[in-house]
Amino acid sequence: xxxxxxxxxxxxxxxxxxxxxxxxxxxxxxxxxxxxxxxxxxxxxxxxxxxxxxxxxxxxxxxxxxxxxxxxxxxxxxxxxxxxxxxxxxxxxxxxxxxxxxxxxxxxxxxxxxxxxxxxxxxxxxxxxxxxxxxxxxxxxxxxxxxxxxxxxxxxxxxxxxxxxxxxxx
Length: 170
Hints:
Elements lengths: L2 H14 L10 H5 L1 E11 L5 E3 L5 E8 L4 E8 L15 H9 L1 E11 L4 E9 L8 E9 L2 E6 L7 E8 L5
Antiparallel strand pairs: 1-2, 1-3, 1-9, 3-4, 4-5, 5-6, 6-7, 7-8, 8-9
């Protein structure tokens, strides 16, 4: 076999081999990174929808594929400021507004490629009833938009949150 023929066969073999660079990224790869909140809606059992926090939302969602940790923070964009200069001295109404206008948790997550979902073992949460639980979120990604569906929302019903990928210093 000539050197030219060997090179041709090698080129054909390389071209025919599946390329990891051309393959669709996994859900875990798609989730990896930082996302900013766009909206958060809760759907009650009767089908009615409402803004989870009563208005615009701010938040950040981070998936770190190296450590396997995720962190989720979502707050009402216009939470009222406390009249005291200490978060420990909020009034009953101020504390109630913060609790009903925010949710945060962190923990290790595992992606299920087949069901297009991830489960997170919640290690800590602003809703203490979640701490120690493993919960699952359905995932839809379209371009730089992520939609999460939580079938057991902390406010009851089903929560649907939409996020936009941070692509640079936004």
